[in-house]
From TrEMBL:
<dbReference type="GO" id="GO:0005886">
    <property type="term" value="C:plasma membrane"/>
</dbReference>
<feature type="transmembrane region" description="Helical">
    <location>
        <begin position="12"/>
        <end position="33"/>
    </location>
</feature>
<dbReference type="GO" id="GO:0022857">
    <property type="term" value="F:transmembrane transporter activity"/>
</dbReference>
<feature type="transmembrane region" description="Helical">
    <location>
        <begin position="53"/>
        <end position="73"/>
    </location>
</feature>
<keyword id="KW-1003">Cell membrane</keyword>
<feature type="transmembrane region" description="Helical">
    <location>
        <begin position="145"/>
        <end position="164"/>
    </location>
</feature>
<feature type="transmembrane region" description="Helical">
    <location>
        <begin position="366"/>
        <end position="387"/>
    </location>
</feature>
<protein>
    <recommendedName>
        <fullName>Major facilitator superfamily (MFS) profile domain-containing protein</fullName>
    </recommendedName>
</protein>
<keyword id="KW-0812">Transmembrane</keyword>
<dbReference type="InterPro" id="IPR011701">
    <property type="entry name" value="MFS"/>
</dbReference>
<feature type="transmembrane region" description="Helical">
    <location>
        <begin position="281"/>
        <end position="300"/>
    </location>
</feature>
<feature type="transmembrane region" description="Helical">
    <location>
        <begin position="103"/>
        <end position="125"/>
    </location>
</feature>
<keyword id="KW-1133">Transmembrane helix</keyword>
<feature type="transmembrane region" description="Helical">
    <location>
        <begin position="80"/>
        <end position="97"/>
    </location>
</feature>
<dbReference type="InterPro" id="IPR020846">
    <property type="entry name" value="MFS_dom"/>
</dbReference>
<dbReference type="InterPro" id="IPR050375">
    <property type="entry name" value="MFS_TsgA-like"/>
</dbReference>
<dbReference type="Pfam" id="PF07690">
    <property type="entry name" value="MFS_1"/>
</dbReference>
Length: 390
C-alpha cells in the first residue's frame, strides 16, 4: 500500500472520531433543557431532572460495550461503525421532531448506544488501515485530538445555530449532516479486515477479572475519571449561569475552555509521558486538579471560574489513558478483555451527574455538583498513591 492509498483510508476513519465527540454536547444540552423545559418544575428537582441527560447517555456504556465487541466479531468493524452512525443520525432528529424532556432523554439514550458502539469499534478499525507500531500510536493520538476538537467546538456550533437559525437546537441537524458525510466517506472507502477467530469471551469471563484487586481499583479509576470529566462538562455552564449571571449561550463557552485545555494537556502529555514516569505524572496532575476543584467550590468571579475550568481540563487530560495503560500492563495476557472492561467503565459518566443533580437540588446551589465531582477526584487521588503496577 503506497502512502497516498494509506492516507485515503486513514482519513475517513479519523473523521469518525469527530462524530465520537458528539457525546460531549450533553454539557450544554442539560443546561438548555433545564432552562427551556424544566421551568415549570420546582427548583428542588430541576438539576436532578436535567442531569438525567448525561445519565441516559453514559449508562449505555454499561449495557452495550461488551455486546458490541461480540457483534463486531460477527459483522466486522467497518459495518459496526456504520451502524453506530445510522443510530446517531436517528438520535439527532428526535429533538427536532418533538422537543420534550422525555424525548430528549430518548435522543441521548440513543446517542449513548451509538457512541458506545463507535468507541468500541473505531479504534480497532484504525488498526486495519495503519501498519507499523509507531504510525498506529500516532494515528490513535490523532484520533483523540480530532475527538477533542469536536468536544471543544460544540458550544460554538450551538451559538452559531442560535444566531444564524434562531434556535440552538439546530446543532442537532448539523451533527446529523456531519455524521451522514462521515458514513458516506467510510462506505466509499475499501478497507480489508482480517478474519476474526471465534471468541469465547462472555460477560462473566470479563467481569471475573475484577477479582484482581488492582484491576478493580483501576476499573473504578476509569469510572471516576469519566465521571469527573462529564461532571465538569455538565456543571460548567450551570455554574457560570448561577454565579456570574451569564445566559445559557455565553455560559456555554465554559465547557469550551475546559475542552480546549484538556486538548492541550493531552497533546503535551504525549511528549511528557515519553520522558517522565506515568505514575508520577498522574500524581502531580491529580493533586493540582483536586486543589482547583476545592477553589471552585468558593469561586464567584467569572474569569477565575473560566481559569479553574482550564486547570482542571489540563490536569485531568491524561488520567484516562494512564489508568487504561496501567490495567493493560497489569494483565497483558487479558488485554482484549480488559479493554472491553475499561470501556464499560465509561458509564461513570452517568453515575456522578446523577448524584450531582440530587445534591445540587438538596443544597439549592451548584456547590452540590462541585462537591460530588470533588469526591470523584479524591478517589483518583487515592488511587494514584494506592495502585502499584510494574
Amino acid at each position: 500500500m503506497n502512502d497516498k492509498t494509506q492516507v485515503s483510508k486513514i482519513l475517513p476513519v479519523l473523521f469518525g472520531f469527530f462524530v465520537m465527540g458528539f457525546c460531549d454536547v450533553v454539557g450544554i444540552t442539560s443546561a438548555h433543557v433545564k432552562e427551556d423545559l424544566l421551568g415549570a418544575y420546582s427548583p428542588e428537582f430541576r438539576d436532578t431532572l436535567s442531569n438525567m441527560i448525561p445519565v441516559a447517555l453514559f449508562s449505555m456504556f454499561l449495557l452495550f460495550s461488551i455486546p458490541t465487541g461480540i457483534l463486531m466479531n460477527r459483522i466486522g468493524r467497518k459495518k459496526t461503525v456504520i451502524l453506530s452512525n445510522v443510530i446517531t443520525i436517528v438520535a439527532m432528529f428526535i429533538p427536532l421532531i418533538e422537543y420534550t424532556f422525555f424525548m430528549s432523554l430518548v435522543a441521548f439514550a440513543l446517542l449513548g448506544v451509538a457512541n458506545t458502539i463507535l468507541q468500541v469499534s473505531l479504534n480497532p478499525l484504525l488498526t486495519n488501515v495503519v501498519k507499523g507500531e509507531k504510525l498506529l500510536t500516532s494515528s490513535l493520538t490523532a484520533g483523540q485530538f480530532v475527538k477533542a476538537i469536536s468536544s471543544f467546538s460544540a458550544p460554538f456550533i450551538a451559538a452559531f445555530a442560535a444566531m444564524q437559525f434562531g434556535n440552538w437546537q439546530y446543532i442537532f441537524p448539523i451533527y446529523a449532516v456531519v455524521t451522514l458525510l462521515s458514513t458516506i466517506w467510510l462506505m466509499a472507502t475499501s478497507i480489508e479486515e482480517e478474519p476474526v477467530a471465534i471468541s469465547t469471551t462472555s460477560f462473566s469471563s470479563v467481569f471475573a477479572i475484577l477479582k484482581d484487586k488492582t484491576i478493580l481499583l483501576l476499573f473504578l479509576g476509569i469510572v471516576f475519571v469519566v465521571g469527573v470529566d462529564v461532571g465538569v462538562n455538565t456543571a460548567a455552564t450551570k455554574i457560570l449561569m448561577e454565579r456570574a449571571g451569564l445566559d445559557s449561550i455565553q455560559a456555554g463557552y465554559g465547557p469550551s475552555v475546559y475542552f480546549a485545555l484538556r486538548t492541550l494537556g493531552a497533546f503535551l502529555g504525549a511528549f511528557l509521558l515519553a520522558k517522565f514516569s506515568s505514575s508520577k505524572f498522574y500524581k502531580v496532575n491529580i493533586v493540582i486538579a483536586v486543589v482547583a476543584l476545592v477553589v471552585l467550590i468558593f469561586a464567584g468571579e467569572k474569569f477565575l471560574i473560566f481559569g479553574l475550568y482550564g486547570v482542571i481540563g489540563f490536569t485531568i487530560a491524561n488520567v484516562f489513558p494512564i489508568i487504561f495503560g496501567m490495567a493493560i500492563q497489569k494483565r497483558p495476557d487479558k488485554a482484549n478483555e480488559i479493554s472491553g472492561l475499561m470501556i464499560t467503565g465509561v458509564f461513570g459518566g452517568a453515575v456522578l451527574p446523577f448524584f450531582m443533580g440530587i445534591t445540587s437540588d438538596l443544597i439549592g446551589s451548584q456547590v452540590g455538583s462541585v462537591l460530588v465531582i470533588l469526591a470523584g477526584a479524591l478517589y483518583l487521588l487515592y488511587a494514584a498513591f494506592a495502585i502499584k503496577v510494574g
